[in-house]
Every structure is written in C-alpha cells, then in structure tokens.
Design a protein that fits this description.
The complex is a heterotrimer of chains A (about 270), B (about 425) and C (about 180). With about 425 residues, chain B is an all-alpha fold. Helix content of chain B is about 65%, strand content about 5%. With about 180 residues, chain C is α+β, with helices and mostly antiparallel strands. In chain C, the strands form 3 sheets. Chain C has a 3-stranded antiparallel β-sheet, with no helix packed on it. In chain C, about 25% of the residues lie in helices and about 25% in strands. The chains are: A mainly alpha (about 270), B mainly alpha (about 425), C alpha+beta (about 180). At the A-B interface, helix 1, helix 2 and helix 8 of A face helix 4, helix 5, helix 7, strand 2 and helix 10 of B.
Chain lengths: ~270, ~425, ~180
Amino acid sequence: MTMKFFKNIALALTATAALTGAVMAAGAAKHPIQQKWSFDGAFGKYDRASAQRGWQVYKQVCSACHSLKYFRFRNLAELGYSEDMIKAFAAEYEVAGEPDDAGDETVRNALPQDAFPAPFANENAARASNGGALPPDLSLLAKARHDGSNYLFSVLTGYEDAPADFDLAAGKNYNPYFKGGQISMAPPLAEGIVEYEDGTAATPEQMARDVTMFLTYVAEPKLEDRHRMGMNVLIFLGILSIILYLSMKKIWKPVKEGKNFYDDAE
Amino acid sequence: MAKWQTIKPENKALAWVEERLPVLALVSNVVGPDTPTPRNLNYFWNFGSLAGLMLVVQLISGIVLAMHYTPDTSLAFDSVERIMRDVNYGWLIRYMHANGASFFFIAVYIHILRGLYYGSYKAPREVLWMLGLVIFLLMMATAFMGYVLPWGQMSFWGATVITNLFSAVPVVGEDIVTLLWGGFSVDNPTLKRFFSLHYLLPFVITGVVILHIWAKKVSDSGNPLGVEVQSSADQIPFHPFYTIKDAFGVGVFFFVFAAFIFYDPNAMGHPDNYIPADPLVTPDSIVPEWYFLPFYAILRSITFDIGIPFTDIVIIPAKLLGVIAMFAAIIILFFLPWLDTSKVRSTRFRPTYRYFFWFLVADMVLLTIVGGKKPEGIWPLLGLIGTAYYFAHFLVIMPLLGKIEKTLPLPESIAKACAPKAQAAE
Amino acid sequence: MSNITNTIEGEEATRRDFLHIAAAGGAGVGAVMAAWPFIDQMNPAADTLALASVEVDLSAIGEGEAVIVKWRGKPIFIRHRTQAEIEEANAVDVAALPDQQSDADRIKSGHEKWLVVTGICTHLGCVPLGSKSGDEKGEFGGWFCPCHGSHYDTSGRIRKGPAPLNLAVPEYAFLSDTTIKIG
C-alpha cells in the first residue's frame, strides 16, 4: 500500500475549479482597532445624535458609490427624525414611478416607504465607474465582517503609506485593515468634507465613528428591542428557574429520604 | 416493560372518550404517574426532553418563518432581511430558529455522550440507540439544508462543497451531483428542493422520535449505575418527580438559549452569510456550522490514496476515502452494541475505560478545532491523528478493553445503592 | 406491580403549596407570553403598514375627470365633479334612496367638487366602470358595475341594481387644497 500525501486535499474536495484560486490569495488583515460603542453590552443603545450625523456622512459622502438597499427612508424615524423631515429627505431623491398612460417610464420624488436609491443602475455600471471594483452595499456590512463595527471604523481611518516592500497595484490604496492590504476606495473622509448640522467638528475620526454608528444601526435595526426584551426574558427565566428548583427540591424530598412509592417493593 | 395502566376518569364525558381512545393513559404511561422510572437518574438524563423540546421550538419557529420566506435565488436573501426588519418580531423568530439549531445539537450531543458514558446502547436498548442515531443523521441533513436557505455566501458555498462530496462516488458520482443540483451548479432548483425537504424532514424526525420513545417505553430507561431495575423499590413515578426535574432543566437551558438569542445572536453564525450568494466569488475559508466540524475534520484529514504498493494504481482515491471516513464515523456508532464487549454498562464501574471515554471527548474537541482551521501547518496532521484515534477508540480500544478490564463491583440494586434507608424500613 | 399506594407524602397539601402554584403559574404565563410573537408576526409588517396611507396630488385632475389610485390593495376613485354633477347629486330626494345618505355626508365640506370613494361595488366586489373617459357611467352619470348592473350616481350612491349600499367613502383628509391623504 502506498500512501501518497497530497497538499490540501480539503481544497480538492471542496472543490469546483473556481474554488481553489481565491482561497489562498487573501493576505491576513490587521486586527481591527477596538473602539467603545454605545450599542455594546447588554444595555447598549444607538447614540441618536451620532447616528444622525452618520446619516449625513452616508448621504453626502458614501452614497456617491455605495448603495444601502435594505434601508428605507421611513427607518429614519427610529433615529429620531420627524415625519416631515423624513418626507423632505426622501423628496431630495428621485425613484422610478409607474409607467404613464403612454407606457413611458416616469420618475417621481421618493417617499418615506421607498428604499434609498442606489447610485448605479447595476453592478456593471458600478464597476465601470470605479475602475473595475464593486463598491459593496453597506446595509449589512457591519454584520458581514468579523468584528464589523470596529472593522468599519478601522478601514475608514486606517489608510497609511504602503511599506517600502509592499507591491501596491496601480490605482489602489494601502490599508492594513483591509483584506490583502490594498483597497480600491480612496480615503473617503477628509477633514471638513461634511459640515455637521449640529456643529460638531467633522474630523475624519469623528465622521468614521458617526457613519459606523449609522451603518451598525442599518445592519441591526432591532438591536434596542432585542436588548430590552432580552433583559425581561432573562429575569423571568432566572426567577422561574429558581422557583422550579425550589419546587423540585420539595417534591423530591421523600425520594431523597428513601421512600418507596409502589406497594410491592421488597 | 412496565405493565400498561388504564385510566378511568371520573368525568363521564372524559371517561367515554378515554374508553374509545385512551390518550390519557398514553400520556400517563409514557411521562405520567404510571411510568415507573429509575429513582437515580442524574441531570444528564434531562437532555432527552430538552432535545425534544428544541425540536418543537424549531418546528414552530420554522413554520412561522416559512410564512415569510421565499425560496427563490433572487428573493431568498431579501425575504430573510424583510423578516429581520419589517415582520413583527421577525428578528426574534429568525434568531430563535438559527440559534435553536445549535442548541438542538448541544442537547443531542450531550444526550449521545451520556448514552456513551452510561452504556445506554447495550442490550436490551440497541434499537433505542439506533433510532437515536437515525434522528441524529436526519438532523444533520435538515440543518445542512436549512443553512442553505438564507442564500448567503456560506449557504451557497456550503451547499456546493457538501453536494460535491457525492462526486467522489465511483462512476456515477458526477451524475448524482447533477441530480442533486437539478442543474450544473447549485442554483434555483437546488434551493427550492432544499426548502421543500427542510420543511419535510422535521416531521420525519418527529416520527422517528415517537419510535425512539416507544422503544424507551419497552426497554425502560437506563440509569447511571447501569444495573437493571430489580424491584419497584428501584423506581419512582415519572410524574411528578421527573416532570418537575425536566421543567427545571428547561428553565436553565432556555436561560442560556435566551442569552444567545438576545445578546449574541450571531455568535454561532458566520459573517459571510450576511453577504448575498455570489457564484463567482468563494469566501476566504469555508467553514461549516460548529456542529459539523468534527466530521468535516475527519473528511479533510484523509489526504492519501490507497493503491497497490510500488505501482501508480489507485484503488481508493483520497477524495473518496475522506467521504467514506466521514460517513463511517457515524455508521460505526450503529455497531457499538457489539463493539463494546464489556459486561458492565456504566463507565462509573470501568476505571480504565473512564480515561478512554474522556480521551474520546478530548479527541472530538480536537477535531472540532481542526475542522474550523484552514488546512495549513500542523492542523492536517492533528486532524489525521484525531481521526485515527476516533476509529481506534471504537474498533480497537472498546472491543479489547471490554475483555481485559478489571471492573469495579456492581451494586446489588438501585435501591440499595441510592436509598438504603428505604431498604431498612421495609 | 406499580399501584401507587404510598401516595406522595401529603399530596393534597403539596398541591396547594404556593411554591408549586408559582412554578406552574410562572411556566404557564411564560408560555402564553412566548406565544404572542408567533401570533403577532401574522399582523401587517412594517413595510405593509408604510403603505397604509397614500398622499394624492389632485392638481392634475381636470374638471369632469376621475383617477383611480391604489390604496391598501384596493382601487380608490377620485372624481373632480363639475358644477352640474354636484347639483345633480344634491337634487336627489334622500328619503327615496336605497341607502339613505346626503351628498354632504359623503364629501368634505368646502371641497364639494372632490368625491373620493372606494371603487368596489358593494354587491359582489367588482370594480365599477365610469372613471375613465369613454367608460359607461350608468343611468345616473356616476359609475356602472358591469358584473350585475348596479348603477351609482355622481355621489357614488347606489340607485339601481342589486348592490345594497353606496360606494364606501374611505378615511381621508385634505392636507391642502390640492393634496389629500387617504388612510
């Protein structure tokens, strides 16, 4: 019997041809910077002011390239905006309307129930405008990466000059927090690129924190409900378990004392 | 088997029904006052009822999710997001279902390990044990197909990898894979059939669970001492003693379950599954759900062909051998009643086997870790050692040790060991 | 074997024991509370509720014209009535109607020229004709249901045919002279 050891048989197994190439290419990314967030922990909530600023950053900066397909204008109510403000935000954008009587396509102003319109009509258009790279949809990004919120913050603030021995492709930017170290997105947040409505100084770090707050909300909109309900459920189950335990001890007492429950016991 | 007791309710209408369809007697004889049960069952015996309860949780939450989910590649991911965002309590029900799968497996794994430790597979409970293994296999199939439904990256690539296992079958492998897919890759027909089967299989599981409980009724529960019930002094009625004990177990188990649902609902999931499936881009590493990892590690550990020595003729290629090893790892458990040659059931009285039992548990933990790592560096070697030990445990250690081990003296009866006062009183 | 003769000690007393009642009660309450999410998930979801009201711009509807808008999955007729149609609606002897209702009860005062009704025949749920130019409007100049021949007048009231009730008026309000919010 010969034993032939092959490298990475798992890959051969896991394997259609398409599979093999990409797997090994990825370089290890730097571990994200750890930030403190208001939504962390069992009582965590979203910081409304920060999320509102983040919405402004998304609108004025990110939305030029990144879609946010699961976000509806009506969701802004949960960030503390009034109905009229939401209508006004929505009305800034146009979406496809119903075909008119002649069957021609129409556009209308967006309404609160509409999704935030995507910047590009389709993936090909998005790639064509971004040097072949596809800007990912941001709705779920905070959950679609390990340690997502810290990751978003780290990538947004983590641009630096490439080390001398790093082979940076043309048109790419060096970012150690991004898988492979090179990212197509140019540093998006420059000092003062946004003028905050509430007067907060728009430093890149502040903007990164705010937009991360907003995007974490968009990825996990029910987090506050979850935390609130969870506390009630855990307290209820905790107390119930204690009562059940005491009840069990009481019921089991005769068993522990060695009592018999059947008449033909020896 | 304890004698079947009939029940005569005082209420005339109830009595009329009971006479024609004895459902009260059925309940009473399976989990009620008329079910004599060993008096010494410990907390490890809670996990059977917990597994049953998790099946119910999964059925209810799953049926509800199916009211909102759309099994179509263009809509599946969106429909899940709609559940998470717009459906009333949709986030809760979905997180409950996703984490429920993990907690179902936790309960079942502890239930199986309890069976291993206390020799619950031995005569006369062989069929009871095998029905349990059938449930385990059906659960794995159901969980695998359920994980595909959200149509994220891990869903898609998990489905691709696992269905490709069948391509290892000689001659007809590729045809089988095409049949499973309903096309030339994992696509819409695959998703639709997985949804259909994912909805069907839990009901098949429920059916086998009923057989499993029936077999338990016939052979009676085992117990930590492994000595059979000799008189009714060894027994207590199931209700109220084990009903309240099971209820307490449910309280504690659900507490932990709820902690995950509400405070770390994605801990046991993979972030890549929040990226919609893309047939052109494979994730960095494809990792199955944690409960598949030991078997995944066994699958990957075989990296060598078996052939005729000193020639290039390959009899069993590595790929096929890996698949065989993975399935064999579970099939072998069906033969446990005969592989274990020891006369003593409970590991409590087998001082040497006790070490090997914990070695096996450690080996399973090792394989779980290996299964989650990329196959680089030391990991493939550890996987191979872990796999070899896994099979050695069942094929070598168990049969041999049973013959040579010096076991501890067994107690005369459950009552003598656990309730000496009762004996004195009689 | 196994007739339970030695009953569980003081069973009657223990049953009434507060501890056991609390345990059973707590478990029961928990089960009931846990049931609610599974029931409530069948209620309209947030995206459905977001469409529960629609705003309609009336400025584009010329006198004598009508439009059909969709609201909660149902057609809503909005008609810009002419002076003659308003007078006709008011001239009717209310007491002689099958479903007695004056025109004033069916419109918002100050906005007499706008009639907003649910476009579903009260007979068996067909959508009556009469909103589009060229449609048959029935004998009373309003709407005509082709399914079983119900005739509605310029106030959407049933005048002839099998339908028992007038076309329903949905809940709506004028946000401005040219905008209404239905629902």
